[in-house]
Amino acid sequence: MSGDAPAPAAGPALPFAFLLPKAAVAQTAGTDAASLEQLIARGRQIFVEETFDGNGRTCATCHRPDNNHTIDPRYIAKLPASDPLFVAEYNPDLKDLEKPALLRQMGLILANVDGFDKPGVMRSVPHLLALPTSIDVEVCVEHGGKGDFCEDEAFANALGWSGDGSPGTGSLREFALGAITQHMPKTLNRIPQVDFRLPTDEELTALEAYMLSLGRTQDIDLSKLSFNSPLVQQGKLLFDVKENPVRNGEVILGETANCNGCHQNAGANSSTTHANPTRDTGVENMRTPPAFLLDPTLAVDGGFGKEERVSCGFSQDHTCYGNGRFNTPPLVEAADTAPFFHNNSVNTLEEAIASYNGDSFNQSPGAKTSSGKDRRVKLESSQVTAIALFLRTLNALENIRSSNSLSRKSMDLRGRNAKETLKLAMADTEDAIEVLQGGTLLPYPEALARLEEALALEKKALHTEIGPLRNLRLHKAIALKLQAKALMVTEQP
Predict the structure, then answer these.
(1) For 179-214, what is each residue's pLDDT tens digit?
(2) Domain annotation covers residue 481
(3) Is 395 within the bounds of a domain?
């Protein structure tokens, strides 16, 4: 879940306000917060309700607020056949808008990322959490010449699975223009103002504000966290390294996981450039990718860029468009948002970590740093488990932060808004429980007990009409969640 709540009329200044267009927020300090809250509320309304005169879909059709602003096969299986997500199944004019088997079985949507004159590729729906931490575009790093990871094509924000997922200047504000054209038309002619309407400037600004409000607004600092489970702490030590050690001129494999280079502080940014990197980590070279087993006619996804390339993907006899590089997602939210990678080719968090042991990564350009240092991966199963428990713990800590934030907002509200906000807080508490239980090993059984007790209090509070009693129960639930956090991690000042 995320910090997606009905916005009150006023509140404290939000930390991401500087990211918004200057014209979108009132200029005086006394009205900034209220204007921003209203803008976010307007953006949420558009995101959830607005069809843009199209086929019935909204932004929330694929980015579900009650499912971490994404979708997955398990969630999709619960939807009725009439849901707009399945419009290609019941509207003959849109029968080629999606590939229903891949949508239902793998949670993949059709995306014409290389233009509507090129074959579409199948991609998962990225979550929208913590966007302020992950959309800065990487700047070239010089190492005696042009860096290996420099982009020749400039764009405003790193968005979508290929990093260049927005039209126009490539900004988050313009992202909706491409999404509406791709996913919401009445027919595949895709004629603006006939098959859909384009959003107004006001709508684009509000949508941007809403998306920037979801989840974390800053990365954590791993150097200040010490985990109270030795299993989890070992996962942190394996994770928080950039490259393999070298002894007597020989690269030593198996002592580190080398995640920090692309996921500093378990976020989405490079530890060198401090911005979101696009990398070719060999995902398209994995053998027998599930989507191709279901549909061997699929186009290989070329990732960033639109230049034609041959020998793409696992079979090496496909043509694709792009340079093979994909955007780096944040990992704090990873345990909550399976399946993994741009093509949902990996089912669980543990399998995603273990996949870096394979040749697809270790023989890819991503197996070297920009300066050519070795970051190949060779992990034992016990090390994979430790890293997964570390990431599960981070995710649970973020769930607790978000849940408590929403609970506090709920206590300041009344009526429907209070209940809806509390339901979101409860969903985050449930997510924390599920994330910690999902690895089977339970490094924090006492913390789990506190979270379950907190959830029970939140359920009682939801049905409590007397305000002071409801808030008392929520105060107790918040305290229990903070106790759970303290059982998991010790924070340094």
Answers:
(1) 999 999 999 999 999 999 999 999 999 999 999 999
(2) no
(3) no
